[in-house]
Specification:
- The protein is an alpha+beta fold.
- About 35% of the residues are buried.
- A hairpin with a 2-residue loop joins strand 3 and strand 4 (about 50-55).
- About 40% of the residues lie in helices and about 25% in strands.
- It folds into 2 domains: about 10-120, Alpha-Beta Plaits (2-Layer Sandwich); about 125-310, MoaB/Mog-like domain (Molybdenum Cofactor Biosythetic Enzyme, Chain A), CATH 3.40.980.
- It is elongated and about 85 Å long.
- The longest helix has 23 residues, at about 105-125.
- The strands form 5 sheets. The protein has a 5-stranded mixed sheet, with helices on both faces. It has a 4-stranded antiparallel sheet with strand order 3-4-2-6, covered by helices on one side.
Length: about 325
């Protein structure tokens, strides 16, 4: 079903139409029925000098319900008590609702072509990615950003077009703003961040994604006792969320963990998996890496500057 955004052009004008003790609620309900909308989503907002104005409250409608429906709409309205139309009566709109007055056969053919074009655009967008790094140490060139080139190379080898989007600050509000801007204006199917997922106060990437998507999947890689070392949070998490049509993915900072995440991440994206599925596949793989590191280092492991002890970890 092809949905069309009305882009704030939500008014239908019917001119001329004659009302005599007509029921405006019935008029709105009849129009809603023709447009395939719930009755409460269509209102009569004005009637002056034989011009009736309807407002569509739903800004996204089924395009195939609109095209070529002018005569059906007028006939439905004319059947109501107190409503009269003439041979000159027509339906007008400044937006996508103007399709209602088009020839149905021509309009439907146009919609089919539009649907194919939309599908191609969505497919192209799905293969466009932006990569953000994070952290003051990268911003100040204290350490090399090895993650962005690795992600870029891996995704490009798998058919993605990848943009380097810059460095995110250690600030939840500013991170959320940068991600929102990239999602709204960049035309990216996926945005990936690295770093900022730890348990210290400066780690705010997961929280920023949750700001944009409160239902984002954010499974733990490991857990800590709050107050141990610099830990102000109870563990390390990654996140997979969505904003508009963009998938947001927050990966850890260590390069080996980023590299280990690319396979599960790419599989999930290619299979159009749910965010929970992608997140858990990435997190599960990282937990396995953590177990091996802990065994190698005899029960303790340093993660992004924080000391994790085996007795404090829970799956």
């Amino acid at each position: 079903m092809l949905k069309s955004n009305l882009l704030q052009k939500t008014e239908l004008k019917i001119d001329p139409i004659y009302l005599q003790s007509a029921n405006l609620t019935d008029i709105a309900a009849a129009a809603a029925d023709v447009l395939g909308l719930p009755a409460e989503e269509v209102l009569v907002v004005d009637y002056q000098q034989r011009v009736l104005v309807l407002d569509i409250l739903n800004t996204c409608v089924n395009a195939y319900k609109i095209v070529g429906q002018k005569e059906t709409l007028l006939k439905s309205l004319a059947a109501l008590p107190g409503v009269s139309i003439t041979d000159e009566t027509s339906v007008y709109s400044n937006g996508m609702l103007a399709w209602i007055a088009l020839d149905e056969r021509t309009a439907v053919e146009g919609l089919k072509n539009s649907g194919q074009l939309v599908a191609e655009i969505r497919q192209n967008i799905a293969k466009r990615a932006a990569v953000f790094s994070s952290g003051a140490e990268i911003e100040h060139s204290e350490i090399e950003d090895t993650n962005t080139p690795a992600i870029k190379a891996h995704l490009e080898a798998n058919g993605f077009k990848v943009s380097t989007a810059g460095i995110l600050p250690d600030d939840r509000i500013l991170i959320a703003a940068r991600l929102r801007e990239a999602a709204e204006l960049g035309g990216y199917g996926v945005i990936i961040t690295t770093g900022g997922v730890g348990a210290e106060a400066k780690d705010q990437t997961v929280e920023a994604i949750q700001e944009l998507d409160p239902d984002a999947a954010a499974p733990y890689i490991c857990r800590f006792e709050i107050g141990t070392g610099r830990h102000v949070k109870d563990g390390v998490r990654i996140a997979v969320g969505g904003f508009r049509d963009t998938t947001l993915i927050a990966l850890p900072g260590p390069n080996d963990e980023v590299l280990a995440s690319l396979g599960p991440m790419l599989d999930g994206l290619n299979n159009k998996a749910k965010k929970q599925t992608i997140a858990e596949a990435i997190a599960s793989n990282l937990r396995d890496i953590l177990h091996r590191k802990m065994k190698t280092r005899k029960g303790s492991w340093s993660h992004e500057g924080s000391q994790l002890h085996l007795p404090h970890r829970r799956n």
